[in-house]
Amino acid sequence: MAARNTARKRAFQILFEADQRGASVQTVLADWIRHSHSGDDRQPPVSEYTMELVEGYAEYADRIDDLIATYAVGWTLDRMPVVDRNIVRLGAYELVWVDGTPDAVVIDEAVQLAKEFSTDESPSFINGLLARFKDLKPSLRRD
Predict the structure, then answer these.
(1) Within 10 A of 98 (CB to CB), how many other CB atoms are there?
(2) What single DSSP character describes residue 38?
Protein backbone atom coordinates (compact mmCIF):
# COMPACT_ATOMS: atom_id res chain seq x y z
CA MET A 1 0.00 0.00 0.00
CA ALA A 2 3.02 2.31 -0.14
CA ALA A 3 1.96 3.32 -3.66
CA ARG A 4 -1.44 4.52 -2.41
CA ASN A 5 0.25 6.37 0.44
CA THR A 6 2.49 8.17 -2.06
CA ALA A 7 -0.48 8.86 -4.33
CA ARG A 8 -2.38 10.49 -1.46
CA LYS A 9 0.63 12.60 -0.52
CA ARG A 10 1.00 13.80 -4.14
CA ALA A 11 -2.73 14.54 -4.38
CA PHE A 12 -2.53 16.55 -1.15
CA GLN A 13 0.45 18.48 -2.53
CA ILE A 14 -1.47 19.28 -5.72
CA LEU A 15 -4.51 20.48 -3.75
CA PHE A 16 -2.25 22.53 -1.48
CA GLU A 17 -0.42 24.10 -4.42
CA ALA A 18 -3.68 24.94 -6.17
CA ASP A 19 -4.99 26.58 -2.99
CA GLN A 20 -1.80 28.60 -2.57
CA ARG A 21 -1.67 29.68 -6.23
CA GLY A 22 -5.38 30.40 -6.48
CA ALA A 23 -5.47 28.02 -9.44
CA SER A 24 -7.77 25.12 -10.21
CA VAL A 25 -6.65 21.68 -9.11
CA GLN A 26 -6.99 20.53 -12.72
CA THR A 27 -4.49 23.21 -13.85
CA VAL A 28 -1.98 22.23 -11.19
CA LEU A 29 -2.47 18.53 -11.95
CA ALA A 30 -1.80 19.21 -15.64
CA ASP A 31 1.34 21.16 -14.69
CA TRP A 32 2.58 18.27 -12.54
CA ILE A 33 1.94 15.76 -15.32
CA ARG A 34 3.66 17.94 -17.92
CA HIS A 35 6.70 18.48 -15.67
CA SER A 36 6.94 14.80 -14.76
CA HIS A 37 7.15 13.94 -18.47
CA SER A 38 9.75 16.63 -19.17
CA GLY A 39 12.62 14.56 -17.82
CA ASP A 40 13.07 16.80 -14.79
CA ASP A 41 14.03 14.46 -11.94
CA ARG A 42 12.93 17.04 -9.37
CA GLN A 43 9.28 16.58 -10.37
CA PRO A 44 7.84 13.37 -8.94
CA PRO A 45 5.71 11.15 -11.17
CA VAL A 46 1.93 11.44 -11.00
CA SER A 47 0.28 8.06 -10.54
CA GLU A 48 -3.10 7.01 -11.84
CA TYR A 49 -4.49 7.01 -8.29
CA THR A 50 -3.19 10.55 -7.68
CA MET A 51 -5.04 11.65 -10.80
CA GLU A 52 -8.21 9.85 -9.66
CA LEU A 53 -8.07 11.54 -6.25
CA VAL A 54 -7.47 15.03 -7.64
CA GLU A 55 -10.10 14.71 -10.38
CA GLY A 56 -12.59 13.18 -7.95
CA TYR A 57 -12.02 15.95 -5.44
CA ALA A 58 -12.51 18.53 -8.21
CA GLU A 59 -15.88 17.00 -9.09
CA TYR A 60 -17.17 17.38 -5.51
CA ALA A 61 -15.10 20.42 -4.40
CA ASP A 62 -18.04 22.72 -3.67
CA ARG A 63 -19.91 20.02 -1.75
CA ILE A 64 -16.79 19.10 0.22
CA ASP A 65 -16.14 22.73 1.19
CA ASP A 66 -19.78 23.04 2.29
CA LEU A 67 -19.37 19.95 4.48
CA ILE A 68 -16.18 21.25 6.03
CA ALA A 69 -17.74 24.66 6.69
CA THR A 70 -20.76 22.97 8.29
CA TYR A 71 -18.94 20.47 10.53
CA ALA A 72 -15.59 22.11 11.39
CA VAL A 73 -16.56 23.42 14.82
CA GLY A 74 -14.81 26.66 15.64
CA TRP A 75 -13.21 27.07 12.20
CA THR A 76 -14.35 28.84 9.08
CA LEU A 77 -12.94 27.43 5.88
CA ASP A 78 -10.90 30.54 5.08
CA ARG A 79 -9.37 30.71 8.58
CA MET A 80 -8.46 27.02 8.70
CA PRO A 81 -4.74 26.38 8.15
CA VAL A 82 -4.16 25.74 4.44
CA VAL A 83 -2.48 22.39 5.09
CA ASP A 84 -5.33 21.15 7.27
CA ARG A 85 -7.98 22.40 4.87
CA ASN A 86 -6.48 20.46 1.99
CA ILE A 87 -5.85 17.29 3.98
CA VAL A 88 -9.50 17.33 5.06
CA ARG A 89 -10.65 18.04 1.50
CA LEU A 90 -8.76 15.05 0.17
CA GLY A 91 -9.81 12.81 3.08
CA ALA A 92 -13.45 13.85 2.78
CA TYR A 93 -13.52 13.02 -0.92
CA GLU A 94 -11.93 9.61 -0.46
CA LEU A 95 -13.97 8.80 2.62
CA VAL A 96 -17.39 9.74 1.27
CA TRP A 97 -17.14 9.04 -2.46
CA VAL A 98 -14.48 6.32 -2.93
CA ASP A 99 -15.63 2.83 -2.00
CA GLY A 100 -12.39 0.90 -2.53
CA THR A 101 -10.54 2.00 0.60
CA PRO A 102 -11.59 1.17 4.17
CA ASP A 103 -12.71 4.23 6.12
CA ALA A 104 -10.14 3.62 8.85
CA VAL A 105 -7.33 3.64 6.28
CA VAL A 106 -8.51 6.94 4.79
CA ILE A 107 -8.66 8.57 8.21
CA ASP A 108 -5.31 7.14 9.30
CA GLU A 109 -3.61 8.32 6.10
CA ALA A 110 -5.03 11.83 6.58
CA VAL A 111 -3.80 11.89 10.18
CA GLN A 112 -0.34 10.78 8.99
CA LEU A 113 -0.26 13.62 6.45
CA ALA A 114 -1.16 16.05 9.23
CA LYS A 115 1.64 14.67 11.41
CA GLU A 116 4.11 15.14 8.57
CA PHE A 117 3.01 18.52 7.24
CA SER A 118 1.05 20.39 9.93
CA THR A 119 0.95 21.35 13.59
CA ASP A 120 0.79 19.17 16.69
CA GLU A 121 -2.93 19.92 17.11
CA SER A 122 -3.85 19.12 13.51
CA PRO A 123 -3.93 15.30 13.65
CA SER A 124 -6.62 15.24 16.32
CA PHE A 125 -8.64 17.96 14.56
CA ILE A 126 -8.49 16.10 11.23
CA ASN A 127 -9.23 12.76 12.88
CA GLY A 128 -12.30 14.17 14.61
CA LEU A 129 -13.68 15.91 11.53
CA LEU A 130 -13.19 12.92 9.24
CA ALA A 131 -14.65 10.58 11.87
CA ARG A 132 -17.75 12.79 11.87
CA PHE A 133 -17.95 12.50 8.07
CA LYS A 134 -17.57 8.72 8.37
CA ASP A 135 -20.51 8.57 10.78
CA LEU A 136 -22.62 10.75 8.48
CA LYS A 137 -21.43 9.13 5.24
CA PRO A 138 -24.74 7.53 4.18
CA SER A 139 -26.60 10.82 4.45
CA LEU A 140 -23.74 12.85 2.92
CA ARG A 141 -23.74 10.75 -0.23
CA ARG A 142 -27.50 11.22 -0.67
CA ASP A 143 -27.37 15.01 -0.33
Answers:
(1) 13
(2) T
